[in-house]
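Entry for magnesium ion complex. Fields follow.
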Amino acid sequence: MTINKNQITAVILAGGKGSRLGGQDKGLVDYQNKPLIEHVLEKIEPQVGQIIINANRNQDEYAKFKHPVISDELSDFQGPLAGFLTGMKTCNTDYILTLPCDGPDLPDDLVSRLISEVQNNNIVVAHDGKRLQPVHALIPTSLIESLEDFLANGDRKIDLWYAQHSMATADFSDKPEVFFNVNTEEQRQQHQQQQQGKPQNG
Ligand SMILES: Nc1nc2c(ncn2[C@@H]2O[C@H](COP(=O)(O)OP(=O)(O)OP(=O)(O)O)[C@@H](O)[C@H]2O)c(=O)[nH]1
Ligand SMILES: [Mg+2]
């Protein structure tokens, strides 16, 4: 079974509290001279049909990126799964691709590798060789009721919801660094310096 990029809406999860970064709205935090989310948008725009920005604060700022900005229906920061549900309810494609707003180094074959593992309505999640990257996932929109029930039941753990469904992983063990994400000020600064020190064609 194959799917194409036009069947996918990327849902960029920018709805968190950013508590480890002093409560900042992480998607808007500067990283190498532009907001973090702009790095994500640049990497993902060529790979999907549509994009939704899922944000619970500063919606006007996010609207400047020219994609629909949608807040969680579930209030009080219920976690990434609340954002998954928001995306599934809002999109009009067969799949959503979930992505965190704080991971600026996405590879250009993210979607093609995930697509290559699609089979029979399964969920496909990126794996970096050591662990699952659960918020980098390709999810059939048909699972919307399942997720609604799961959240209504008070559950919030992504892995528990995945375990209720058929799931495959896409292998990125050759480049685990693409999943780097900015959770603390130290990470933001350290990584910025490393990137600046890299040779241009390396
Ligand atoms: N829609 C939505 N997304 C969320 C929520 N909580 C976290 N996320 C997103 O999930 C992704 C991974 O979460 P973290 O890296 O822990 O981000 P965070 O929750 O803002 O940061 P901390 O508060 O420091 O843990 C990020 O892209 C967040 O924006 C939420 O309640 N709703
Ligand atoms: Mg993070």
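NOTE: The radius of gyration is 16 Å.
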